[in-house]
Design a protein that fits this description.
mainly alpha, 2 strands, globular, two-stranded antiparallel ribbon
Length: 267
C-alpha cells in the first residue's frame, strides 16, 4: 500500500473540518452561548489572577507584568489541545460503548482520524484572549519586538503546546486499560492551572514533579524564559522544543498502543 503523505492528510483534515463546522453552525444558539461562556470563563480567570497579583509588586523576583506574560503564554499554549484534540474527552465513551471499533477499519492513521473528527471552535476565543494578554504584557515589560523575537515566541509556543497535548493524549489513552479514566483526564487538566506560575515559587519537590513527572513547567515557564529573560536562559528552556517533540511522540505511541490492543466490548 502506498504511504500517504502530509498533503493527503491536510486535504482530508480540511474536508472533515468543514463538515464539523457546518454541523456546529446548524445549532447557532448553542455555538454562540458556548463561545460567550468560554470568553467569560477566561475573563473570570483573569480577574482572579489580577486580584491575586495586583497588590504585590513582585513574587519571588517576578513582576506583575511578567506574571501576566506567563498567563497569556499559557493560554495560547493550551489552545491547540482544546481546538484540535477535544475529542479525547469522548474517547472513553467510544471505547466503553464499543463505537471505537469503527475507527479501526479506515485506511488512514487511526490517531489522526479520531482526533480530526472534532474541532472545538470555542477555543479560538481563548486564543484571542491569550494573544491580547501576551501583547499587553509584552509592551509593559518593554521587550524588543524584532522578527527574531517573534519567531522565537512562535516556535516556543508551538513546542509548549505539544507538552499539553501530550499530557492529555496520555491521560485519555488510560481508558484502554482502566474504567474511571475520566478522573485521570480531569486531574491532568487541573494541573494546567499551575502552568501560569513560575516554578520557582514552589518547593523543590514540586519543581521536580512539574519538570520531570507532570511537565507543566514546559507549558509556559521554561519556554517563556527565552523571551522574558534572554540573559539568564537555563538549559531546560533551550531543550523545551526537544522535550515537546519527545513527549508528544511518546504520548502518541502510548495512545496507539491502547488503540491497537482494542478489540471491542466483547459482547
Amino acid at each position: 500500500m502506498k504511504r500517504k503523505g502530509i498533503s493527503f492528510y491536510l486535504h482530508i483534515y480540511c474536508k472533515i473540518l468543514v463538515q464539523d463546522l457546518k454541523s456546529k453552525m446548524s445549532y447557532r444558539a448553542d455555538f454562540i452561548i458556548s463561545t460567550i461562556g468560554m470568553i467569560f470563563t477566561n475573563i473570570a480567570g483573569f480577574i482572579s489572577f489580577w486580584i491575586l497579583f495586583r497588590n504585590f509588586p513582585s513574587i519571588n523576583g517576578w513582576s506583575y507584568y511578567e506574571m501576566m506574560f506567563l498567563y497569556g503564554f499559557s493560554l495560547i499554549s493550551i489552545t491547540p489541545v482544546q481546538c484540535f484534540f477535544d475529542n479525547n474527552w469522548s474517547l472513553r465513551i467510544h471505547v466503553y460503548s464499543g463505537d471505537f471499533i469503527k475507527y479501526c477499519f479506515r485506511p488512514i492513521n487511526l490517531f489522526f482520524y479520531y482526533q480530526s473528527e472534532v474541532f472545538d471552535i470555542k477555543g479560538l476565543g481563548q486564543l484571542v484572549f491569550g494573544i491580547g494578554t501576551l501583547i499587553y504584557s509584552w509592551s509593559k515589560i518593554n521587550l524588543a519586538c524584532t522578527p527574531l523575537m517573534i519567531l522565537k515566541t512562535i516556535i516556543f509556543l508551538i513546542t509548549a503546546s505539544l507538552i499539553m497535548i501530550a499530557v492529555m493524549n496520555a491521560a485519555a489513552a488510560t481508558c484502554f486499560w482502566i474504567t474511571n479514566s475520566f478522573y485521570v483526564m480531569d486531574l491532568a487538566l487541573k494541573f494546567k492551572d499551575y502552568a501560569k506560575y513560575p516554578i520557582t515559587i514552589f518547593s523543590p519537590l514540586f519543581r521536580f514533579i512539574f519538570t520531570f513527572i507532570m511537565p507543566i513547567a514546559f507549558i509556559a515557564y521554561y519556554p517563556s524564559l527565552v523571551i522574558l529573560r534572554p540573559d539568564e536562559i537555563p538549559l531546560l528552556s533551550w531543550l523545551s522544543p526537544l522535550f515537546g517533540c519527545i513527549f508528544f511522540y511518546l504520548s502518541y505511541k502510548f495512545w496507539m498502543l491502547g488503540a491497537m490492543k482494542y478489540s471491542g466490548t466483547g459482547s
